[in-house]
């Protein structure tokens, strides 16, 4: 006789000791009782040795859960094209991070310097640093070029406060272009669509601010 029990599984024994709890239904099985298998259940167990106790008792295998449908991986050529285009976009955005100061004296340009001020520094200069310097009696501040080694340019604080909003507008436009191009790159479904994205299109011209040393502005 084959018995099933929740803890030990299947037990083939001629007869159980009298002290063992024997049941006739699943509720008693859940409480630890031994259930004797019928001939049909025993035959099912023999035909399906890996079946669980409950599957044998019910003479029915539990269906395998449906596996989620996993989309096919993106074709290699599309993934490569997408990554290459995103790199192009990042490089173009980095290239746009500059403006120029044309330093003039006596009506002639004596220097043309490349600079950049990132978003955090722009906000800090405009809202905190420059007003604080003015309150402390300062009239000029230093800006630093992007070259190596960097060079300082002394500019009037009033001049800097006038130029920073213009620089902020320029930076917002270049950011919008980068984000738009990135969105289009992710939305593209073919290599041709990605190739048609012109990362340089519509970028604004670099800003050039005139600093007239004769006027102090």
Structural write-up:
The chain is of the alpha/beta class and 217 residues long. It folds into two domains: 2-58, no CATH class; 76-212, no CATH class. The protein is 43% helix and 20% strand. The protein is built from seven helices and nine strands; from the N terminus they run E-E-E-H-E-H-H-H-E-E-H-E-E-H-H-E. It has helices at residues 26-30, 39-47, 53-58, 76-96, 119-135, 157-187, 191-195, and strands at 2-5, 9-12, 22-23, 34-36, 99-105, 108-115, 140-144, 152-156, 208-212. A four-stranded mixed beta sheet has the order 2-1-4-3. It has a three-stranded mixed beta sheet with strand order 6-5-9, with helices on one face. Strand 5 and strand 6 (108-115) form a beta hairpin. Helix 4 runs antiparallel to helix 6 (157-187) and helix 5 runs antiparallel to helix 6 (157-187). It is elongated, with a radius of gyration of 39 Å. It starts with a strand and ends in a 5-residue tail after the last strand. The mean pLDDT is 92.
